[in-house]
Design brief:
Low-confidence stretches: none
Distance between the termini: 19 Å
Shape: elongated
Strand content: under 5%
Number of strands: 0
Radius of gyration: 17 Å
């Protein structure tokens, strides 16, 4: 349930950041122009709210398809939090890197967290499939 709630909050954050960005998009020079580093990374951060929010909703929906024993384990807990940490870090890394280009190496945090979550969920669902639990 945590990933479902978090996912919908994050999708709503995507709407909110889109509304904020939309206040200036009509200006040619907004945030340095359409192709500027700052504007591209800020748009990416806005979209990251939607994408990672959707991933968390999918984690929650996946849990409904698996048995209770599969979703109440340590590996499930770690995977679930990996998706949340990655989702929190991704848009904020985008916003930080938009302001300070030298900070682009901070993207390692959300990439590693989301990759860990993806690998773990793949293993969990493959194991459930092979055991006939799906």
């Amino acid at each position: 349930m945590l990933n479902l709630t978090f996912g919908w909050i994050w999708i709503t954050m995507g709407f909110a950041t889109g509304a904020l960005l939309g206040m200036g998009f009509h200006k040619e020079t907004f945030m340095g122009g359409y192709n500027s580093w700052a504007r591209r990374l800020t748009r990416l951060g806005h979209i990251a709210f939607f994408g990672t929010g959707f991933l968390n909703v999918m984690v929650a929906l996946t849990a409904t398809m698996l048995d209770h024993e599969t979703t109440h384990t340590g590996i499930w807990w770690i995977m679930s939090w990996a998706f949340i940490v990655g989702a929190i870090a991704m848009p904020f890394c985008c916003f930080i890197a938009a302001k300070w280009k030298r900070a682009k190496s901070i993207f390692a945090l959300p990439v590693l967290a989301l990759t860990l979550g993806g690998v773990m969920l793949s293993i969990i669902t493959l194991r459930a499939y092979l055991q006939g639990a799906v």
